[in-house]
Amino acid sequence: MHLDAAVADTSALLAIVGAMPLEPPGADALWAPDGALLEAVAVLRSFHDGRTPDVLGDLAVIGPMVSEWISAHVALTPLVDLAIAHPDQLIVDLTALAVAKVTHLPLVTGQPDLVGLDPDVAVVVLPRRT
What we know:
By secondary structure, the protein is of the alpha/beta class.
């Protein structure tokens, strides 16, 4: 599926560089919460066994793919609502969902458990690579 624009969560960002076994998101423009970048650093640090040049190399690929990094404060009210309604979900994942809500864009993710958490947000689950 190809989208004009979408919000990418951490799993979608990591799919771009092959750090997650998912097909990368197909969108002309990707928006992402800035917290997803922090989570990507944490995952890439482990994925690359702490090799700084490899982590920075992947971030150099991810960065230009994101049209706009969105600060969490932009989506604070829907984020708090989602966090209260779904206390078992990670805040960084709910932040991506909240950003999708306020931007009226679909969320691309590798996490099927995000589907249906907010009926106003279309969630596209990226297929696993074969």
